[in-house]
Amino acid sequence: MSFLQLLTNRFPTNFFQDKIVLVGVTANSLGDPLTTPLTTLGQTMSAVEVNAHIFQALRSERLIQPVSSIIVTLTLVSTLLLLVWMVPRLSGFMQMFVSMSFGLVCYGVSLALLHLFSLWLPIGSLLLGIAMVAPLWNALRFNRVLSYFLRESSAMQAAGNQGLFVAKDVGLATEFESELVLFLKLLQLKNCRLTCNHETIFHTLDDKEQASQQFEFTKDFSLTLLDQCYTLQVSCYRVGGEEQAMLRLISQVFSRFSQGGGGIKSSHDILIDKMQFFKQLQVESVKTQRLFKSAIDEMGGGLLVADEMGNLLFHNQQAARMLIVGDGETSLFTCLTQLQFKKSSQTWQQLVRQVLLDGKTIQLEANTLYYPDLDITINTMHAPQSQQTLLLVNISNIEKIKQAQRIRNETIDFLSHDMRSPMTSLLALTQRQRQHNDIPSEVFLKQVEEYARTNLHYAEQFLQLARVESSEPIEMYELDMGALIQNALDSIYHQARARGIQFSFHEPEDAWVTGNGEILERVMMNLLTNAVKYGQVNSCISVAIGDQGDSFKISVQNSGPAISDSLQQNLFKPYQRANQGGLNKQQGVGLGLRFVAVSLQRHGANIDFVSDDQSTCFFFHLKKLPLSLNPDDSQQSDKQLKAETPAA
């Protein structure tokens, strides 16, 4: 109450009976030298009112008691230890959130103790510790990371740039100039000028272009390297795909060397510099990984990689094609069960166990439904970093190697038997004539001529087959298939007449095709010779050229026994011979039909046949050459073409 209210008797006298009255200044205008708290209404509390509250608290024994120092210390230590345990396991944002949560919880606990139990818990040091835990820990962690970056980057730089895609350091300006000139010569730029400090060191000019023709595009490239200023000016009369590719390559070279050989620009932050350095190493590592993965995928053989338990870790594309491995396949043994052993009686589990325990390499042959000859190699590779032993299964398709071995063996047999037999007989004949002289001269010369012609025939067939099976191009030109077949018929006429065989030839008015006349005539002679040799005596051989719209069907049909089923499967393989007229005597060397098949493949055609008990017909198709040509086409048709079809 104010002192004025007391003087005007607004309160009775007994109102102050048995009470302690504190008198003091309460007017705000008078000022109070003491800093006092605020009232619940937000007004400044006078000093006498503060003293009244203190006096009342003393009388009622409601003083605030401080918490024991032991409890404060335990609370501080336990809270900070808990926060130190949690901070390293959290990200930066979560560290901030958890630290703020700890601070709010401690502040709330302090207020609750004060209002409910009149206990004062000092939390200033605790809040300061909570605020400093995360920054101090991050500073220590940053120092460790930075030390690691500095140590590792120094070691890598000391070892040198050993990456596959690291640009070469330039040591001398003359070395760079020579390499740049070689690069420009490689690109074969027609109009360019390279200068060093305004002095021309390389210059090209296309003299074939007209002097009056204007350049469509001109671009300058500049580079300062080792205190030398290089400028390259490239001019183009036209800008096509090739010119754009050249400009892109030149731009890449100049950009790389302008950045210090592909180096990293230095910044003011050492951590950022090291991060950029490791980023470049990561890029090189990704490039190298992609390179090796691409190389493994494109390798000729299949590769399977598994762990010790048989879990499939990797397979390349070739292995997926050979074994039909699905993308979700996880078992090595499931993939290997598709392979059938040729000689081994063990299971895949036994073989893998032997490789793991003995550490030896196992090599064996197997086959699948689509690959008859596969070479399988199983070995192990140890990975010390992961403490793991990897199983490597290499699968190679050796079908062509096996086929080459078979052809080699057949060729050796041919040379050692078929070609030696006539020569051996000839030597025996001459030795007998020299010792006994009991053979008439005419008979002796006739037999010698027969043996020589037989051996010459074998050699010619062998050389002709080797010619068409080679990779050398065959000369192609326009030819009349009717005239070519007629020439072949004339060549076989006497051989057919000896057996009483006649020819029936049916051809259209025009049968023009593109091919090699010498080879196609030899094809027809081989077919006709076989038709005469294996046809019935006193029969007729039908030769026809049928018009099939865009192609001609050439067929040779004779009357005779059917070709056996066992021989039909290998009819066009080398050194396969049939019985003549049902007899057991084999005639020829077995290269004629092989020559026919390979020759027609070089002409983009395939030989086929139909055989029954009455007759056998061989036929093939050749693309028809259109006759309605314009003058330009007719001039072009006079030129000889070169066939680049690979040998079979």
TrEMBL record:
Transmembrane segments: 67-87, 93-114, 119-137
Domain Histidine kinase: 414-626
Pfam family, one: CHASE2
Keyword Protein transport: no
GO terms assigned for molecular function: phosphoprotein phosphatase activity; phosphorelay sensor kinase activity
InterPro entries named in the record: BphY/WalK/GraS-like, CHASE2, HATPase_C_sf, HATPase_dom, His_kinase_dom, HisK_dim/P_dom, HisK_dim/P_sf
CDD domains cross-referenced by the UniProt entry: HisKA
Record EC number: 2.7.13.3
Assigned keywords, A-Z: Kinase, Membrane, Phosphoprotein, Transferase, Transmembrane, Transmembrane helix, Two-component regulatory system
Catalytic activity: ATP + protein L-histidine = ADP + protein N-phospho-L-histidine
Superkingdom as given in the UniProt entry: Bacteria
CC per GO annotation: plasma membrane
Record Gene3D superfamilies: 1.10.287.130, Histidine kinase-like ATPase, C-terminal domain (3.30.565.10)
Record keyword Transmembrane present: yes
BP GO terms, sorted: cellular response to phosphate starvation
PANTHER family: PHOSPHATE REGULON SENSOR PROTEIN PHOR
Protein name: histidine kinase
Organism: Oleispira antarctica
